[in-house]
Design goal:
Length: 183
């Protein structure tokens, strides 16, 4: 199985600028969703996505084939999000940007499908670590190993987080009166 991201990045490193556009099209929206789970701010999440791709352009690091390119890309984004949170020197709480995210604006439509809006809204009520593991595993189809690499946790920790996150999400769905079977 060919790693789309790795092959596109190699094409970019060899001078094919359209390969970078392919990477942005393929991973841009998913990176924004992932960064939003850290920052709770759509515009900051977009900025981090752009900075992540800028890092690929500026550093032009040779990608090692030990992991999937998508895992590599998400690790860069995660580190950038953590840098922003550290610079804020406080815990980010849910804010008015949630309303922007869940509106019917073109940005929110691109960010979330209608099917996932209700679920994602409930997920935002979860602790940050739970949101991140759910997004990576269920929205981005990361394996437990890949999720562990991105979040710097071992398999057991990821399985524990997943179990707790699912249980907490189920409680929130029940409390909100949402049938969790449909989601």
């Amino acid at each position: 199985m060919t790693d789309f991201g790795a092959s596109s990045y190699h094409r970019y490193l060899q001078g094919d600028s359209s390969a970078l556009e392919d990477l942005v099209r393929e991973y841009g929206d998913t990176l924004v969703r992932f960064c939003y789970s850290f920052l709770n701010d759509y515009y900051s999440a977009e900025d981090v996505m752009e900075e992540t791709f800028a890092t690929l352009i500026v550093k032009r690091k040779k990608f090692s084939e030990r992991a999937k390119f998508k895992t590599y890309l998400f690790k860069i984004a995660r580190n950038k999000c953590i840098d922003i949170l550290r610079s804020r020197n406080r815990t980010v709480e849910l804010n008015d940007n949630l309303n922007d995210l869940l509106s019917d604006s073109p940005e929110s439509t691109a960010l979330l499908s209608d099917r996932n809006k209700q679920l994602y809204k409930c997920m935002l009520l979860l602790p940050e670590a739970y949101r991140q593991v759910l997004i990576l595993v269920y929205f981005e189809d990361f394996s437990v190993e890949e999720t562990g690499k991105v979040l710097y946790k071992n398999r057991k920790q990821i399985y524990n987080l997943l179990s707790r996150a699912r249980a907490s999400l189920k409680e929130i769905l029940i409390k909100e009166g949402i049938n969790s079977e449909n989601i």
